[in-house]
Amino acid sequence: MTRQWVILTLIALVLVPSMVELGFWQFHRHERRVAQNGLIADSLAAAPVPVEELTSPGHTVPRADYWRTARATGTFDTEGEVVVRRRTNAEDRVGFHVLTPLVLADGRAVLVNRGWVPFGADQTAFPEVPAPPRGTVTVTGRLKADETTGTSGIKDLAGLPPRQVMLISSAQQAERLDREVLGGYLELTEPRSGPEGPEQIPAPDHDSIGAHMAYAVQWWLFAAGVPVGWVVLVRRELRDRAAARRPGTPEPAPAAG
Question: Where are its TM segments located (predicted)?
Fold first, then answer.
C-alpha cells in the first residue's frame, strides 16, 4: 500500500457514500414531485366550494388545500387594489400581478389575483390595469397560501412605490385596508378577463415529473462504478508489478492517483 494507493482508497471510500446520498436526495425530490402532482390534480378536480369553508382571517392555508377551487361573491374594491412586482407571464415576460380585494357580504375581503399586466414606461408608476366587473360578482379561483420570503425566495423590500408590493400577504393587506381579510388568496379562473383584461395565470403543471429519478439512478451507477474501477486499477497494478519482477522487464511507473 503506497501513499498513492492509500489516498486513492480514501477518496473511493468518501465518494461511494456521497454518491449514494446524492442519489437518495434526487429520489426524494422525485417522490415529492409525484406527490405534488397528485395533490394538484386532486385539488383541480374537486368541486368548487365557498372560500369561507376553506379559510378565514389569519388562517394559514394548509398544503392539502393548495389549488383547491373556491368561489366567492362580493364586489371588487378597486381603490384597495395593488400590484405585485417582478412577476412573469407564460412567455417569461416580467411585469406585475394585479391583486384586487373582493369585499364579501359580511364586510370581510378575500384577495383575488386577477392576472398579469406588463410594465409601463415607468416601472415606479402604478400601471394601467383594466377594471374588474362592477357590482356584485361571483368569482372562482384556485386557493393559494400567503407568500413569504422563505417559501417564495422573494425578498420583501421596503420603500416601494405606492400600491406596489413584493409578496402577496393577507396580513399586510388587512392592515393596509383596515378590514378583515381571509388568509391566502385566489388565483382567478372565472370569469375570464378577456383580451383586454389582465392575462390570467395558467393552471399549474401537474404532468411533468422532471428528471430527478434519472439523476438518482445516475448517481447510484456512479457509486457502483467507483469500487469496480478501484478493483480494475488494483488488478492492473498487481499485473504490472508481477511483470516487473520478470527478468529483463523495466519497472513500471506507479498507478495514477
Answer: 213-233
Number of domains within the chain: 1
Assess if residue 21 is contained within a domain.
no
Residue 190 parent element (H or E) = strand 181-190
Contact 77, 101 (CB under 8 A): yes
Q: What is the pTM of this model?
A: 0.72
Judge residue 169's burial from the number of C-beta atoms within 10 Å of its C-beta, 0-12 exposed, 13-18 middle, 19 or more buried: buried
Whether residue 211 is contained in a domain is answered as: no
Full domain range(s) for residue 84: 45-190
Distance (Å, whole) CA 238 – CA 235: 5
Q: Is residue 95 situated within a structural domain?
A: yes
Query: Closest by alpha carbon to 154, among 97, 87, 96?
Result: 87
Count Cβ atoms below 10 Å from residue 17 Cβ, excluding itself. Answer: 10
Asked whether residue 156 is assigned to any structural domain, the reply reads yes
